[in-house]
Amino acid sequence: MKPYAPLKTLLVLALCAAPLLASAQLSGNLSLTTNYKFRGQDQDTHKSKAVKPAIQGGFDYAFGDSGWYVGNWNSSVHWLPGNSIEMDVYGGYKFKAGDFDVDLGALLYAYPGNSTGNTTELYGAATWGPVAAKYSHTVSEDYFGWAGAKVGSGLRGRNTGYFSLAFAQEIAPSTTLKASVGFTRFASDIKDGGVPNYMDYQVGGAYDFGGGLSLAAAVAGANKKSYFGDANKPRLLLTLTKTL
C-alpha cells in the first residue's frame, strides 16, 4: 500500500484546495506613466528632463475569500548600471479588524542585471474610510544600493523604515481626489554616512473612464536634495492605466 500513499495525500490536498481555487481571483494591470517616482524619487536618473516615460504592469492573485494573496509588479527603470527593470514580488494577508481593513505582507524589490539594488521589506497597512496608513520595514541587509553585502560597503540597510499616510475620496462621479505624505527613516549606517532622512508627497486625482481604464494626474516630489541630482524635484505625473 505504501506506493499509493503519496497519491492519496495529493488527492486529499487537492480536495481541500478545490473550494479555495474555485473562488480564486486573478487580476492584472498595465500602465504608461510620464515619470516613475518611488517615495518621491525619480527612478530614471539618467535624464534631466521632467518627462521620463515608464511602462508598468503586473498581476494579483487572491485566494478566494481567505484573505491570502500574491502578486507581481514591474516597471522600467534606469538608475542602476546594467539594469533596466524593477520586478516586485509580494504576498500577504488581508482581514477586517472592526472598522479597519488590515493588510500584512512581505515584498521583494528585485533588479535583474544588478542585484545590488535588491531589497526586502515587511509591511503593515490599515485603511479606515478614505484614510490609509502603512509602515514598511527593511529586513534585508541590502537597501536599494545604499548598503549591504552586495554593494561591498560594509554598511547595513536593515531596519530602515518608511511610514505613509494616504487619502482618497471620490469628489464627483468617476473622479477621485488623492493625496499622500511619507517619511523615510534610514538605518543608522546609512544616515551616519551622510544620507538624510526625508519626506515625500503626492497630490492629485484620477478619473475612471469605465471598462477598467483610468487616467491619473499628480504632483510628486520630496523635501531633500537627492544624491542623484534633481531626482527629488517635484514633477507632474500623468499615468494611464488599464486593469484587466
Share of helical residues = under 10%
Mean pLDDT figure: 90
The span between the termini is 47 Å
Compute the number of helices: 2
SSE sequence, one letter per element: HEEEEEEEEEEEHEEE
Describe this structure in words.
9% of the residues lie in helices and 52% in strands. The longest helix has 18 residues, at 5-22. It is mainly β and 244 residues long. The relative contact order is 0.14. A hairpin with a 2-residue loop joins strand 2 (37-38) and strand 3 (41-42). The chain has helices at residues 5-22, 188-191, and strands spanning 25-33, 37-38, 41-42, 54-62, 68-76, 85-97, 100-110, 119-128, 131-138, 161-172, 175-185, 198-210, 213-222, 235-243. It is built from two helices and 14 strands. It starts with a helix and ends with a strand. It has a twelve-stranded antiparallel beta barrel. The protein is globular, with a radius of gyration of 20 Å.
Summarize the structure.
By secondary structure, the protein is mostly beta strands. Helix content is 9%, strand content 52%. The chain contains two helices and 14 strands.
